[in-house]
Design a protein that fits this description.
The protein is 30% helix and 24% strand. Bound molecules: uridine-diphosphate-N-acetylglucosamine.
Length: 421
């Protein structure tokens, strides 16, 4: 970890990106799927997985619970036959927000769990009240301690719960909590994100009985036992448009393979508004931009199928070069514009407020030394550096490693000049 904290990218800007990349499984789909694997005692293989810090940290949590969890040749091999509901300490859970996913499945299988509080990107307050209120509504006794959460089921986990906001993580946690049960769980105002669909498809492949994932009502009919499976999660709908954004900002032409336009539709709308031309294949997306980007008068992040908050900073980086003023409104997280302050070091004209940021495009960005303060913001700053006319440094790139597998190698294969030191 010490080493990773001190690593940085050195980017020589000014090169047009051209070429293609293969997109692997979505980090945000893989993480809850790993957690859900504790619901089964049989062999599970998850395919086409990117080697990411968050995923490695999640596997360490699984091992601490007694699961066999191995990452080999892009696949994850899991077997939780010998798992126990032992305490998951805060030093493990602090490493990532997704550690909270362990609550539901451990409870479902063992009836009790003590879990350290989660960590994750510093993009504002990230409470877990919806997870906890949901579990309570399904018959779980929850005690919140200073550094951990202790949960115990009263009888069977079942019942109905309406989320006050369609939280992705809370929807996934409650789905997993209801799987091994004698009763039925119904979740209203559920998140409709594709990762929720992936999680239910995975659990159903193991023998679960979940319907409605991808709509706002999800029904989980309890089963006695789950089996094993080999599963390929969907391609990463944030990684792909991030590389497309790198292509666009350098006025290049890049192709992402292993993903379809339908999977990243709301991002493509933004790219088209900027002036990009897009070609949609059955299993690929090509993007080309050969002029100065156009502004987007109003870009608003919203839950799926709206424009995803996780792509907001990358599009913000492109808009810093558009002719005119764009306004981005963030409705999901409260502190997701720190990158926009860093963008100023490249000469971008940003007027940052809590919920909205105004970006007045400049003709040319200049090289700078900037700090990645969170995962997607760090990716956005790296993309901005590609469009400068000189040598930039991005510090604290361990944040970027949490969500992009060898980001610099991907960009280099498209023709960027970027090294990790
Ligand atoms: C997931 C994604 C993350 C993405 C986010 C929104 C994973 C691993 N991460 O995060 O990349 O940016 O969805 O699409 O899938 N909230 C509460 N109480 C809760 C839970 C959430 O108030 O109990 C709030 C959060 O603070 C935030 C909003 O709801 O403001 C959305 O959070 P949520 O949908 O839960 O995001 P995550 O599951 O953490």
């Amino acid at each position: 970890m010490e080493n990773q904290v001190s690593q940085q990218f050195v980017v020589e800007g000014g090169r047009r990106l051209n070429g293609e990349l293969h997109i692997k499984a979505a980090k945000n789909a893989v993480l809850p799927i790993i957690a859900a694997s504790i619901l089964s005692s049989e062999d599970i293989i998850i395919q086409n997985v990117p080697d990411l810090l968050d995923i490695r940290n999640m596997l360490v949590i699984m091992q601490s619970l007694g699961c066999k969890a191995e990452f080999k040749n892009g696949n994850i091999y899991l077997n939780c036959r010998d798992a126990k509901a032992s305490l998951v300490t805060a030093d493990l859970t602090r490493a990532l927000r997704s550690s909270i996913f362990m609550l539901g499945p451990i409870l479902s299988r063992f009836g009790e769990v003590e879990l350290g509080l989660p960590g994750g990107c510093a993009i504002g307050k990230r409470p877990i009240d919806i997870h906890i209120d949901g579990l309570r509504a399904l018959g779980v006794k929850v005690e919140e301690k200073e550094c951990s959460i202790v949960c115990k089921k009263r009888k069977s986990i079942e019942g109905e719960f309406r989320l006050k906001f369609p939280s992705v993580g809370a929807t996934e946690n409650l789905i997993m909590a209801g799987v091994l049960s004698n009763g039925t769980t119904i979740i209203y105002n559920a998140a409709k994100e594709p990762e929720v669909v992936d999680l239910s498809n995975f659990i159903n492949a193991l023998g679960g009985r979940i319907t409605g994932a991808g709509t706002n009502t999800v029904v989980i009919k309890g089963v006695k036992k789950l089996y094993g499976a080999i599963y390929s999660p969907s391609a990463d709908r944030i990684a792909a448009p991030t590389y497309l954004a790198a292509g666009a900002i350098t006025r290049g032409c890049v192709t992402m393979r292993g993903i379809s336009c339908a999977t990243i539709g709301s991002c493509l709308n933004a790219f088209e508004a900027i002036g990009c031309s897009i070609i949609c294949g059955r299993d690929f997306v090509t993007l080309k931009l050969n002029r100065r980007p156009k502004t987007i008068s109003k870009l608003i992040t919203t839950p799926h199928p709206g424009f995803p908050t996780d792509m907001q900073p990358q599009i913000g980086a492109i808009l810093s070069l558009a002719k005119g003023t764009s306004i981005i409104t963030e409705t999901i997280f409260e502190n997701r514009f720190r990158y926009a302050l860093e963008l100023q070091k490249f000469g971008a004209l940003t007027n940052v407020a809590t919920q909205s940021t105004e970006i007045c495009g400049v003709k040319q960005l200049k090289p700078a030394e900037v700090v990645a303060e969170d995962l997607r913001g760090g990716a956005a700053l790296t993309i901005a550096a590609l469009a400068t006319n000189g040598k930039s440094i991005i510090k604290d790139i361990h944040h970027i490693d949490r969500g992009y597998e060898k980001f610099e190698e991907g960009l280099r294969s498209l023709g960027a000049s970027i090294v990790r030191i």
